[in-house]
Amino acid sequence: MNIERLIQTAQEKELPDLVLKNARIVNVFTGEILDGDIAVTDGIIVGTGSYHGKTEVDLQGKYAAPGLVNAHLHVESSMVTPPVYAYEELQWGVTTVITDPHEIANVGGIPALEAMLNASEHCCVNYYIMLPSCVPSTPFEHAGAVLTAKELSALKDHPRVLGLGELMNAVGTVNCDPDVMAKLRAFSDSVIDGHAPMVTGKELNGYVTAGVHTDHESMTFAEAVEKLRCGMAVLVRDGSASKNLEAIIQGVIESGIDTSRMAFCTDDKHLADIRQEGTIRANLRKAVQLGLSPVQAIQMATINAANIYGLKRIGAIACGYRADIVIFDDLEEMTVHDVYKDGTAWKDIPVLNNIPYPSELLHSVHTAPVDESIFEIPEQDTYHVIGIMENQIATRTLTMTHEEVQKGLADGTVRKIAVIERHHARNCHACAYIAGYGLQHGAVGTTVAHDSHNIIVIGDNHADMLKAVEVLQAIQGGYTITADGKELASLPLELGGLMSLKRADEFLPLLDSIIRMAYDRGVNPNIDPFITLSFMALPVIPEIRITDCGLFDVTKFCFIGNEASL
Amino acid sequence: MNIERLIQTAQEKELPDLVLKNARIVNVFTGEILDGDIAVTDGIIVGTGSYHGKTEVDLQGKYAAPGLVNAHLHVESSMVTPPVYAYEELQWGVTTVITDPHEIANVGGIPALEAMLNASEHCCVNYYIMLPSCVPSTPFEHAGAVLTAKELSALKDHPRVLGLGELMNAVGTVNCDPDVMAKLRAFSDSVIDGHAPMVTGKELNGYVTAGVHTDHESMTFAEAVEKLRCGMAVLVRDGSASKNLEAIIQGVIESGIDTSRMAFCTDDKHLADIRQEGTIRANLRKAVQLGLSPVQAIQMATINAANIYGLKRIGAIACGYRADIVIFDDLEEMTVHDVYKDGTAWKDIPVLNNIPYPSELLHSVHTAPVDESIFEIPEQDTYHVIGIMENQIATRTLTMTHEEVQKGLADGTVRKIAVIERHHARNCHACAYIAGYGLQHGAVGTTVAHDSHNIIVIGDNHADMLKAVEVLQAIQGGYTITADGKELASLPLELGGLMSLKRADEFLPLLDSIIRMAYDRGVNPNIDPFITLSFMALPVIPEIRITDCGLFDVTKFCFIGNEASL
To answer: How far is residue A133 CA from its own chain's centroid?
Structure first.
């Protein structure tokens, strides 16, 4: 960095590269909105006030805020690669993302993390990584990798690694599980993200004392406040599925509580939703429309997140800060007029999408030989059946007689669901009945199946279910729909079976098309054909799930019925 | 650290070591005051709420706040060693100090910094160091050392070194002086303290863009706000001499500006003043009495300072934070009831004062051979005379005729002042006339002479002035008063000629006694006999000073009159 040039241009002894004239500048330090110009040299803000520059852009009184920070998210949920995702964020004013590559780590372990770090090197936003702390998520399934404290430590000093990702194993933490303790010790000088939905009282004290800094799972204001009081930073989440912002921000407004330890995040937001309204910009708009002061909301979306994660020279329009700036037409609708990243307008920034990925990550589907017999379910008097609940990812355990199941299979209210290990050809698989999915005929399958991302397939007959497994093997991961022995449609997600290598423009119509086909074939319109399916394998969300090891009772934390052997 | 034990006791599965019962706990994160107990294990806060402990202390509704942070100070100004100083701070609720050992570095260079780091290892407060950036302060004098970017870098990674100390060379910074640039580059990833009194506009932008993070020199609210807007953190100073708090805090209250980037400091505060009212506790009290909310003031005095300097696990009463706690009887007078450091009550903490210091630092006075001739001033028609101003450290340049000087010498209004290099026996010395000091007869001398700390002596006759120099050599630095060829009183400051090795209880009466003697001998009652003297050699404060190189015109930045050669 040419400090001399920055200092010279700050004093206008030389002209700055770029001056954004006539802005209303949101000052996140003083909480003011001040009229002025913003001078930028070599991608760094060198001053505000009255400036002339080599290039001048007249903002005509529009609002200039620091580039937004998305404080916690999983890029994999977008199903596009880091550079493509980053470009979508950028257009909506986000210039910094803090990501937890938890999903791809479950597929590819340390090499996958290295590939994500490499890919994100070429992103058009500041791209930080929290190292996934819980791979695998549970001992009740087979993931592609097991990440130990020692392995994670090797990546700890990477300049864009900020610390340890969300510590979902709250139970293991408060019970001093040795593996968790080893990770806490290894990262005791870094930021450690938490994941503590409804953890409260002394259990919460234990969890926070262990060294956990943040939480993004608060669903109520009371939960958020208890965490703040304990010393946690609270990331207020509004994503595609989990929407906690309204409850928390309403409480903030009513109570007038200090928000300096609060930031915004999306956790999981789908690409189509991002295209529609952005990420943090949508959180901002909602917060302001609820009645939070725009400046306070912008502080949460910028400098607060930077402070929580120790990011330097990010999150403010001030001397020496990166010229990451979002221009809003207004502070009510938060209409994004333009975005500057390191002093360059986003339209002048190309998406780099020709990044090489390691071959293992592009060929990640390895099942043991399978035939239709894996879908056989031994006849019983009664069955535990997974009951899908509309508009949420929780399930309930149904108990159905043999006759009821047969009737359900005939009338389309019951289907078979199977999970097949796909990382190391382990010959582990399980099959069960599921109610509420719909689907008149054929099978739907995917390699996106939280958190271990084995193959999950649902269908009304064994042949089509097997065909779906075969298609997913052939395309090396993705979404597929089969019927009558044929592949009706597929969407390849070549990168680890989770992400497409396509650009967003190309990818979204394909995604839309296969989802529409699933609905056309009778999938319940009040669920997402693929996303709902992908959560059926997550054995930490009540009440009942299926993994490659068997049908799992989440409330009792044990396998039930026809489990396979671990 | 036994994380398991912390987690267990947080959940009361085992009893915490200490529980402070029935406190009103100041929560700096939410801005609330909450009733509850504070549980402490192994010196760490493991929870608040309702707890039982091995030891319990009933606080009976007193206020518990995080231990205070003094964000910028020079321990040398107290004239006692770091462990002794720390103990004085602790009693008044300060548990963290951020010090700039600028004075001792001017005497002893890198070995002196290492000695301070070693001594502060044994302090009863969290003791952090900013590495002095400007040694020597100016090229117009001889200090004991010259500290380059390279030498400073060698200490940068010490765990208690936070960054680069106050960058007094603002002119050199905005003019891209290569030495300053080298230091800025070396510390670009650390905190860099500023020193920018009245620097404003684009010059300030240049200074901040250079990478300077803090400033403690603001004298008005307007000055403070401009610095905050630029991105600087503002340390609000109230010390023995410089009192900026009232002006700034009044502005804060009137404007309602965000204070999250503001903290408190004392810069220079004398031991006797600290004994009287503490340091940051006095700032707090004044701020609250001006009308600032107590919680907001406590945030400034704790978590804000910790955030500004990136201190982890300091500045809050929350899970996992150090159990550094101050108990106040009330939040108006801020009467300190008790102080806990790492969970131990301050009365149970011993002062460690048997720390070995390097011999060079205990024998730091090395003058070239001197005789009375060095006090000769060639006869001139007119002289530039240093005019002392009462109750401030600025001086004015008087022009006096030979006759006026002679008359002044006779009636006691004019005296001679001399500075003699004392670090490397360089044979550099200068002598001039000074008005307004008083002193009927004899000489007053000291090795405390900002910032190079050469010998400075004032007197009415050459013999006593020489005697004072000889005494200072003999006692290896300190304060002395001589008359009629005799040493009337001396106060040894053995450590670098700046600090006494004594405990505060022993030291203060001696200090008091020698100051009283100086007044008894006719020193102007509206100045401090030694402190005023010690500032006469500082060639950066207007209008006229004297260094070992000559009489210096600060307004024109050049030597005048009878200067010696550099």
So the answer is: 15
